[in-house]
């Protein structure tokens, strides 16, 4: 995998650079107004060619994540948990639980909602388990 793909910042998702080092949490929380976050979810009924992504744009990560969760992932009534993000390498393979799909979608959106609480560290994580491991080191 190329470095941009590994961090989830590839051409299929958002137009933003990776943030690392001290102060990354604050840069993450105060994202630039001009940042454009694009929803690349393909509705299941749109899977016939030509595929059409949602393509709604958002100015904050919170808005994008809320949109994907409410409009595309669905509530507890949803029985199948499949990622329909454009070019997702899972290719329709379902998750066994909704929370696993929600965690997976962070690969596409770049959301990292778990900041390190230690002053000056600035690291943020997409998964709470990774923050727990980091805090032990």
UniProtKB/TrEMBL annotation:
<keyword id="KW-0862">Zinc</keyword>
<dbReference type="Pfam" id="PF18366">
    <property type="entry name" value="zf_ZIC"/>
</dbReference>
<dbReference type="InterPro" id="IPR013087">
    <property type="entry name" value="Znf_C2H2_type"/>
</dbReference>
<dbReference type="InterPro" id="IPR036236">
    <property type="entry name" value="Znf_C2H2_sf"/>
</dbReference>
<comment type="similarity">
    <text>Belongs to the GLI C2H2-type zinc-finger protein family.</text>
</comment>
<protein>
    <submittedName>
        <fullName>ZIC1</fullName>
    </submittedName>
</protein>
<keyword id="KW-0863">Zinc-finger</keyword>
<feature type="domain" description="C2H2-type">
    <location>
        <begin position="86"/>
        <end position="113"/>
    </location>
</feature>
<dbReference type="InterPro" id="IPR041643">
    <property type="entry name" value="Znf_ZIC"/>
</dbReference>
<dbReference type="InterPro" id="IPR056436">
    <property type="entry name" value="Znf-C2H2_ZIC1-5/GLI1-3-like"/>
</dbReference>
<dbReference type="GO" id="GO:0005634">
    <property type="term" value="C:nucleus"/>
</dbReference>
<dbReference type="InterPro" id="IPR043359">
    <property type="entry name" value="GLI-like"/>
</dbReference>
<dbReference type="GO" id="GO:0008270">
    <property type="term" value="F:zinc ion binding"/>
</dbReference>
<keyword id="KW-0539">Nucleus</keyword>
<keyword id="KW-0217">Developmental protein</keyword>
<dbReference type="GO" id="GO:0000981">
    <property type="term" value="F:DNA-binding transcription factor activity, RNA polymerase II-specific"/>
</dbReference>
<dbReference type="Pfam" id="PF00096">
    <property type="entry name" value="zf-C2H2"/>
</dbReference>
<dbReference type="GO" id="GO:0000978">
    <property type="term" value="F:RNA polymerase II cis-regulatory region sequence-specific DNA binding"/>
</dbReference>
<keyword id="KW-0677">Repeat</keyword>
<feature type="domain" description="C2H2-type">
    <location>
        <begin position="114"/>
        <end position="137"/>
    </location>
</feature>
<keyword id="KW-0479">Metal-binding</keyword>
<dbReference type="Pfam" id="PF23561">
    <property type="entry name" value="zf-C2H2_15"/>
</dbReference>
<keyword id="KW-0238">DNA-binding</keyword>
């Amino acid at each position: 995998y190329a470095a941009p793909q590994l961090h989830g910042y590839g051409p299929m998702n958002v137009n933003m650079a990776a943030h690392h080092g001290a102060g990354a949490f604050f840069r993450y929380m105060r994202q630039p107004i001009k940042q454009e976050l694009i929803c690349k979810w393909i509705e299941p009924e749109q899977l016939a060619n030509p595929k059409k992504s949602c393509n709604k744009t958002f100015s904050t990560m919170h808005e994008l994540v809320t949109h994907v969760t409410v409009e595309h992932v669905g509530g507890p009534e949803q029985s199948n948990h499949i990622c329909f993000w454009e070019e997702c390498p899972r290719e329709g393979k379902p998750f066994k639980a909704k929370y696993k799909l929600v965690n997976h979608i962070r690969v596409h959106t770049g959301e990292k909602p778990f900041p390190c609480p230690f002053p000056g560290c600035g690291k943020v994580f997409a998964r709470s388990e990774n923050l727990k491991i980091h805090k032990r080191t």
